[in-house]
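[job 0417] fold request received: Transcription factor domain-containing protein
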Amino acid sequence: MDALTASLVGKNDWRQEQVGVVLATAYFLSHCDLVTGNMLGLVSRLDSIRELIRERWDLLSSGLTGVSARLLLWLAYLDLRRSESLPRLYLRSRLYLKEAFGESYPSLELRDDMIQDPVNLKFAEGMSILGKILQHARHGHENTPELRDDLESLHSEMIELERECDLALQGFDSGNSISITRTSYHWLNLKATTQCGLILLSRMRNKSYRTDDEAQSAAHKILKITIQLGKANKLHNPHSVFSVLPTFLAGIETVDEVHQDWIMRFLEDARGWGLHVQRAAKVLHRAVERQKQTGCRLGFKDIADLASEQLVL
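[job 0417] inference complete; emitting structure tokens
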């Protein structure tokens, strides 16, 4: 990986395939680091990619395709850093799977991709908003008027995104539940993303309370989505590094002990996904016990301190 990035630093004409190889390799190795618990390797690799982006962004962006822009989006999520350019870059090409598989890509699959296009765009938007919220939560900024205004703006964005999810999911409503298709699966995951954001915002705005109605509602919605996807056999394997975060946050926020027990069993059953899930299960158990003892919410830093090793979700 170091040799690949070093080979690009001194060049002034990058080919698209070179950029794609670097980003694909970085994402693959980063995901391996995540599931094997190699946090030092993960941090080091993301640092080198960020430095490459900072120094040679003009050349890098000129070589981005739909596939590599999507890889860059996930690398940015892993690094918990917001990039203003990512949604714009993603708009250049939404046919990223056709780019990956070439002319042999079936027309039926291409049609399904076009149907999913709106949710793919919204998911990029949702991750960008969540990244801003996570930055605030991680840094623990003082409660200033500027911060309150910023959090209120982010809250409004998440509420609007949730409304769009609910509107889109109406087309998959079969009466008592949502019919799970490839498209509705992504809308449900996006809705879970919005609920993550609402829980985090609630915990930042109301630190002295154990919970509030909006956060409890968000935790319940995440649990409901997880159960829906489980019934549709969509949770046998993790579909992305993002699979754990919503359920983890719901487990910390909910005050319903039955729901907490179910979520802890869910994470225990998912231990085979990687060490990051095993660590999340341990931290969740400790956080639940600590909140029971104190009767108060744990802050973002307090939760991180409960992990004996670095935790990335």
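[job 0417] notes: Residues 1-102 form one domain. The CA atoms of residues 229 and 235 lie 6 Å apart.
[job 0417] exit 0
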